[in-house]
Amino acid sequence: MTLLFAFVKIEIRPEPSEEERAAILAALAEEAEKPAPAPWEPEALESP
C-alpha cells in the first residue's frame, strides 16, 4: 500500500490584519510543538 501526501498552500481570504496574522501563526506554531499522538493500536481480538 502506498500513501501519498500533498502539501497544500493555505490561503485565507480576506487577508487577515497583522494582529490576526500573528494570532494564526502563534496557534500554528503551538500546534507544531505538541508531541505526535501515540500510534493507533488495533483492538485486541477476542477469542470465541
The arrangement of helices and strands along the chain is H
Radius of gyration: 19 Å
Sheet with the most strands?
A: none
Low-confidence stretches: none
Cα(first) to Cα(last) distance is 31 Å
Which percent band covers the strand fraction? under 5%
Q: Strand pairing plus helix content: what structural class? A: mainly alpha
Query: What would you call the shape?
Result: elongated
Helix run count: 1
Mean pLDDT: 79
Give me the count of strands: 0
Specify the helix fraction band.
Answer: 25-40%
In short:
With 48 residues, the protein is mostly helical. Helix content is 33%, strand content 0%.
Helices, strands, pairings?
Blueprint: H1 18-33
Textual characterization of the structure:
The chain has 48 residues and is mainly alpha-helical. It is built from 1 helix and no strands. The longest helix has 16 residues, at 18-33. The protein is elongated and about 55 Å long. The two termini are 31 Å apart. The relative contact order is 0.08.
How would you describe this structure in keywords?
about 50 residues, about 35% helix, mainly alpha, 1 helix, elongated
